[in-house]
Design brief:
GO terms for molecular function: nitronate monooxygenase activity. It comes from Paraburkholderia sprentiae WSM5005. Keywords: Flavoprotein, FMN, Monooxygenase, Oxidoreductase, Plasmid. It is a single chain. Helices cover 42% and strands 13% of the residues. By secondary structure, the protein is an alpha/beta fold. The chain has two domains: 229 residues, Aldolase class I (TIM Barrel), CATH 3.20.20; 107 residues, no CATH class. The strands form two sheets. It has an eight-stranded parallel beta barrel, surrounded by six helices. A three-stranded antiparallel sheet has the order 7-11-10, with no helix packed on it. α2 packs parallel to α3. Bound molecules: flavin mononucleotide. The site of flavin mononucleotide has 25 residues, from β9.
């Protein structure tokens, strides 16, 4: 299992564990995989605290961070994030906001409490200017060996900065053309995510996408993402030419994950068919559990979802209220997760998930051994 990429990063198993939860990151790296912290929910100041916390607990193990940074940012000229937020808000048709509010009211979710977090706070966290600050902060932390970008190659100067600092740069793709573009822009690892995956996802299934990308970007290493939840699937990914696997959904049902009790219950009970690709969260297709929120945006009278980042502001109405009233918002809480959710049926410790994957991987390769003989 020690692929050349695993050697390069100094990890025992090439299992990349993406999570927004720092506890999962620490536990995954300590168990011999590599934890990757999703930064999109943090202000730069919060991220600094998170990384210091991880550094203090992870020992000499490496870890990664993941940012959401477009190669070209149409709002780059606007440095004042509050002004940017006001500008973006003024571009949202009032009927779209009214529709989001109606979905929440129809499902019995109260208005935001007085003085609660403003929806602009979330937007400010997810702008390219913030992602740039995330990278700068991460580069001050030597145990951050890997910087991944959800949107592929970052702007050229950021790519250079990451590589000049000796960190490994990874970028996600959902189709071959994107993977080739990232490779040309100097990305060190291409993460090929099949449509099964949780979060933003394309249309092509993992079984087709992984080998296509492997062949198209060789010799650049590829990580297989989308639908990986067992060691046999890791064996399959390596057979298809990947150098490791990139996983997200798997860590949501760990004991360390910071979901609410209600979200955990929903995920543990969900079947693979219970997810949908919905534009209702960010304006880009994102795989999540079907519920009253996703259904309402599919209704014949629903307004069209808006492009990123405008739909983010619309959805902040739901994410904010779900945070404030987790119980009352059960039917409309947004739960990004992949189709592998059908296998996530019990809570496990993060480290036990890593050990299980490794054991299952070896069991799968044992099953395969007799098939390798021609006699
Ligand atoms: C709850 C959740 C949030 C995610 N957020 C991000 C993100 O902020 N950045 C990113 O690059 N990928 C994000 N992803 C996608 C993961 O990085 C990963 O590619 C995906 O989960 C792999 O497929 P799997 O869910 O089948 O393991 C997210 C996935 C989930 C489930």
């Amino acid at each position: 299992m020690r692929t050349s990429l695993a050697e390069r990063l100094g990890i025992d198993a090439p299992i990349f564990a993406f999570s927004h939860c720092r506890d999962v990151v620490v536990e995954a790296s300590k168990a011999g995989a590599i934890g990757v912290l999703g930064c999109v929910g943090f202000t730069p100041e919060e991220l600094e605290v998170q990384l210091d916390w991880i550094d203090a607990r992870i020992g000499d193990k490496p870890y990664g961070i993941d940012v959401v940074m477009p190669e070209k940012d149409p709002w780059a000229e606007e440095q004042d994030l509050n002004r940017l937020h006001e500008k973006l808000k003024s571009m949202i048709p009032p009927e779209t906001i009214a529709y989001a509010k109606k979905i929440l009211a129809d499902n019995g979710v109260p208005e935001m409490p007085e003085g609660a977090q403003h929806e602009g706070d979330y937007l400010i966290r997810s702008t390219a200017a913030t992602a740039r600050r995330h990278v700068e902060i991460a580069l001050k932390h030597p145990k951050v060996r890997l910087v991944a970008n959800a949107l592929g190659a970052p702007p050229a100067d950021v790519t250079r900065l990451i590589k000049d600092n000796g960190r490994v740069l990874a970028g996600l793709c959902g189709e071959v053309s994107q993977g080739k573009k990232h490779a040309d822009a100097g990305v060190d690892i291409i993460i090929a995510q099949g449509t099964e995956g949780g979060g933003h996802t394309g249309e092509i299934g993992s079984m087709v996408l992984w080998p296509e990308v492997v062949e198209a970007v060789a010799p650049i290493p590829v990580l297989a993402a989308g639908g990986v939840g067992s060691g046999a699937q890791i064996a399959a990914a390596l057979m298809l030419g990947a150098q490791g696997v990139w996983t997200g959904s798997l860590w949501l049902t760990t004991i360390e994950s910071d979901l609410t009790e209600h979200q955990r219950e929903l995920l543990l009970a969900a079947r693979s068919r219970d997810t949908t690709r919905s534009k209702s969260l960010t304006g880009k297709p994102c795989r999540m559990l079907k519920n009253e929120w996703t259904k309402a945006w599919e209704a014949p009278d629903a307004p069209k979802t808006l492009p990123l980042p405008l739909q983010d502001i619309v959805a902040a109405e739901a994410t904010g209220r779900a945070r404030a009233y987790p119980d009352k918002a059960r039917a409309v809480t947004i739960n990004p997760v992949g189709q592998i959710v059908g296998r996530l049926n019990e809570l496990e410790r993060t480290r036990d998930v890593v050990y299980r994957l490794i054991e299952e991987y070896y069991a799968a390769t044992e099953r395969f051994k007799p098939l390798m003989s021609w006699e």
